[in-house]
Amino acid sequence: MQNEHPSLTCFSEEQRQAAMTKYQVIAPYLRSEKTLTVIVEETGIAKRTLQYWIRDYEQFGLTGLIRKTRSDAGKIHLDPEIVIAIEQLILKYKRNSLTSIHRMICEQFQKQSSQQPSYYQVYMVSQSLSKSLKKLAHDGPKAYENQFDLIHRREARYPNEIWQADHTLLDILVLNERSCSVQTKPI
Q: Most Cβ neighbours (<10 Å): which of 28, 64, 67, 153?
């Protein structure tokens, strides 16, 4: 279990400071100076929360007091059909706000007696869509090309179809019999 809690140096200064703040709250209890009830009355922190902090500190030290991030943070926990329906509504309606899209999706899945997504889940689906896809769906291919495609693309249908010549004057270098170079004017 020690692998779950790396050393304090792996965490940011803010995380270490937050852990120290938690420790300062539970330190009087650990030194048997105060009871948990007194600490609850003084700080307003729930007794169960203090018990978790004490347990984590006794098991892992200060690293146990650092807030853990969820392994599934940022993932959307919805049925694929709901995600697809949300994406379709977002791409179909340009001018509608996410609130109205959330309302429409809830009405749609309420009729089916299905799970209704929260506003945050609709927001997360919206954020997962690429800007280029939204531009294409809302403004059309011309606006998409103007913003996301190359400015000018040339393609040849067969070899040597496209030739490029730059009109830069070149210097001519002439060697005489002594292998000395004589520079002449550009032509």
A: 64
Digits of tens for pLDDT over the chain (187 positions)? 445 667 778 888 888 899 999 999 999 999 999 999 999 999 999 999 999 999 999 998 888 888 877 777 767 788 888 889 899 999 998 888 999 999 999 888 888 877 888 899 899 999 989 888 888 888 888 888 888 876 666 777 888 777 766 677 777 777 777 766 655 565 5
User: Helices 131-139 and 80-92: crossing angle, nearest 10°?
Assistant: 50
What is the rounded CA–CA span in Å between residue 5 and residue 63?
Answer: 6
Quote the CA–CA distance of 111 and 182 in Å, as a whole number: 90
Q: Directed axis angle between helix 13-30 and helix 47-60, to 10°? A: 100
Query: pTM for this structure?
Result: 0.47
Provide the token pair at 2: 């020690």
| Single-letter amino acid, residue 165 | A
Helix (H, G, I), strand (E, B) or coil at 118: coil
φ/ψ region of 73 (left if φ > 0, alpha if ψ in -120 to 50, else beta) reads beta
**Cα separation, 102 vs 104, whole angstroms:** 5
The C-alpha atoms of residue 87 and residue 9 are separated, in whole angstroms, by 42
